[in-house]
Amino acid sequence: MAEVIVCDSAQQAGDLVAAHIAAQVRACPTFTLGVATGSTPLPVYQALRTHADAGVDFSEVTAFALDEYVGLPDGHPQSYRAVVDHEVTNPLGLDPARVHVPDGHLDGIETAGHRYEEALTSHGGVDLQILGIGTTGHIGFNEPGSSFGSLTRVKTLTERTRIDNARFFDSLDQVPVHCVTQGLGTILRARHLVLLAFGEGKAEAVAGAVEGSVTASMPGSAIQLHSHVTVVLDQAAASQLTHRAYYDWAHQHKPAWQGI
Ligand code: GLP
């Protein structure tokens, strides 16, 4: 079962996850971080800046993004390449040559998934993968119905996800229809999964992913198949969990040496 940690705020959750990542990077400067986009991981990236300012050196860290939109022009501010540069690579001082994002260019899109899998495999995989979850239950952009064995490939976004993400664009029409995303099988290869979710709007998806049936209809439930998962929530996102009291009890009694 996943470890579930319920925090008082998104900021507290971000501080907790960032402290763990910073400690890992101190211990292993060539750490490999799987980065997610969307609003949810921002408190983690914000808190990591404090660690970078305090002297944690991220210059040898490798990063792999989960996904990218297909067909946005180079430099589009909502391309996940641009978001990762803006939120992670530049502020933390990562070496841009070590930051990988799936290639969403239309030219060569047929091989984008395969090329990304090769890059991940030849690097040796991801040590810690940060995950958000969509209201459809998607992780990365693996919409309901995605195979648990799926690898990086082109997917079609649901209308729900396009509407959710329209807030980042001028209009719904501008939200791409396709994306390139790590598959659920790709994500499950990462050595530690850290799923964050905040707000009432995520409560149903969180309950489905953490406590519901393991089913392709709820892609987030794939985390139940992984041996090392940490779910970090605020109170609202945890509000539909049945075993909430146990998670709190287990967290309070967790031996400090175990970390997250
Ligand atoms: C996005 C991303 C996901 C993200 C999710 C939730 O579309 N592809 O990686 O976890 O949807 O986004 P947010 O954190 O903004 O709610």
Provide an overview of this structure.
α1 crosses α2 and α2 runs parallel beside α3. The strands form 2 sheets. A 7-stranded parallel β-sheet has the order 1-10-9-6-2-3-5, sandwiched between helices. The radius of gyration is 17 Å and the shape is globular. β2, α2 and β3 form a beta-alpha-beta unit. The chain contains 8 helices and 10 strands. The structure holds 2-amino-2-deoxy-6-O-phosphono-alpha-D-glucopyranose (GLP). The site of 2-amino-2-deoxy-6-O-phosphono-alpha-D-glucopyranose has 14 residues, from α5. 2-amino-2-deoxy-6-O-phosphono-alpha-D-glucopyranose binds next to α5.
**Which sequence of strands runs across the widest sheet?**
1-10-9-6-2-3-5
What's the average pLDDT?
A: 97
**What is the overall shape?**
globular
Low-confidence stretches: none
Given helix and strand content, the structural type is: alpha/beta
Number of strands: 10
How many DSSP H or I helices?
8
Order of SSEs: EHEHEEHEHEEHEHEHEH
Tell me the Rg in angstroms.
Answer: 17 Å
Q: Helices, strands, pairings?
A:
Elements: E1 3-7, H1 10-27, E2 32-35, H2 42-53, E3 62-65, E4 67-69, H3 80-92, E5 99-100, H4 112-123, E6 128-131, E7 153-156, H5 159-165, E8 178-181, H6 184-189, E9 193-197, H7 203-211, E10 229-234, H8 244-252
Parallel strand pairs: 1-10, 2-3, 2-6, 3-5, 6-9, 9-10
Antiparallel strand pairs: 4-8, 7-8
Helix pairs in contact: 1-2, 2-3
Bound molecules: 2-amino-2-deoxy-6-O-phosphono-alpha-D-glucopyranose (GLP).
